[in-house]
Every structure is written in C-alpha cells, then in structure tokens.
Write a structure and sequence with these properties.
Blueprint: H1 13-37, E1 48-50, E2 53-55, H2 57-76, H3 78-102, H4 114-132, H5 145-150, H6 152-163
Antiparallel strand pairs: 1-2
Helix pairs in contact: 1-2, 1-3, 1-4, 2-3, 3-4
Length: 185
C-alpha cells in the first residue's frame, strides 16, 4: 500500500491533517522566533529558557524550519500533510529518546533540558496523531479510503450493492395471490 495515493483530495480527513500540521507548525514557529528575538548563542549546551524550555540559536533555527515545513504541509493538505505529520512526529519522538541520553553532556549541542525532552515526546505524539488520524485504527468506517484499500473484496461488494437498484417484489401478485387490479388467480 502506498500511503500517498489512496486518499481522495477532497476527503474530510484532509482537514484534520491540514489543521494539525498548521497548528503544530505555528507553535514551533513561535518558539523558534522567541529564541531568535532573545539572540541566543548558536551552540550553547546549557541553553537559555524560552517559554519554559531550554533553547539556543541552533534549536531556534531548527524549530523555525520545521514549523515552516509543517505550515507549508498544512497549506498543501491531503496526503502530503498526513505523511509529513507522521514523519516529523516520528522524528520528534526519536529526538526525545536521543536527548534523554545526552542531557548534561557536551554532545547536547541543542541545549536540551528535561522539559525539552518531555515537550519533544508530547509534540511528537500530537503531530503523529494528527498524521495517523483516520489511517490507523481497527474500526475504520467502511467509507474510509484506507479501509477500502485494506479490504478490496468487501469494498467492491458494498460498492456494487449501493449501485444496484433494490430488489422489487413480484409485481404479478400480492401476498394473497391476487393479481394487480384485484383479479384473483
């Protein structure tokens, strides 16, 4: 299954992907902009506190770039926004795991603190949820294109049954055996 091909452009799930990407992108853009406004040093390993999170110039730059990418994905919408949300959400989770091990070490070039790690996990889960919404579930509705792709035979059967006219009762007789017009057999 190719994740980018099966969702129609005008499907109602596109709004979830679009708004989720835009919302998370704005949050990251604001955080990064606040870091630039505070003129942080680029690779300070201790970082300054911005909006309750430790930051430096490099983390501000990454936040602005990723935020702009998410906002662009929100403008594009559809499968691109969904796939972008899933990819960036996964990267946030991986970043959280990686930074847990390098806290208070010289390798911490982004100046992460424990609050950043928690934020990375939470933001990653939020972005990932927006990207996976309607794609991954055990109880997808049958009109969902992802369900239809995973169950092609049943989807074709349901599609045929919607297109076929309902079976008409026998016109020749009613329940008592009378013919139309009140005549009996």
């Amino acid at each position: 299954m190719k994740l980018q091909d099966e969702l129609p452009v005008d499907h109602h799930l596109g709004a979830v992907y679009r708004w989720g990407a835009a919302f998370c992108g704005v949050v990251l853009l604001v955080f990064g902009s606040l870091g630039f406004a505070d003129r942080l040093s680029p690779f300070s390993t201790d970082g300054n506190t911005i909006a309750g999170l430790s930051s430096n110039g490099a983390l501000s730059l990454i936040s602005v770039l990723v935020g702009a990418l998410l906002i662009a994905g929100g403008f594009i919408g559809g499968n691109i926004a969904s796939t972008l949300n899933m990819a960036i959400g996964t990267l946030f989770l991986l970043s959280g795991f990686a930074h847990v091990f390098i806290l208070d070490r010289p390798a911490n070039i982004l100046g992460f603190g424990m609050t950043n790690v928690v934020f990375s996990f939470l933001m990653g889960l939020v972005i990932l949820t927006f990207g996976m919404y309607g794609r991954v579930s055990s109880k997808l509705p049958h009109d969902n294109p992802y369900w239809q792709l995973r169950h092609p035979e049943e989807a074709a059967r349901e599609s045929r049954s919607r297109r076929e006219p309902p079976a008409r009762p026998d016109v020749r007789s009613d329940a008592r055996g009378a013919l139309p017009g009140g005549r009996s057999r």
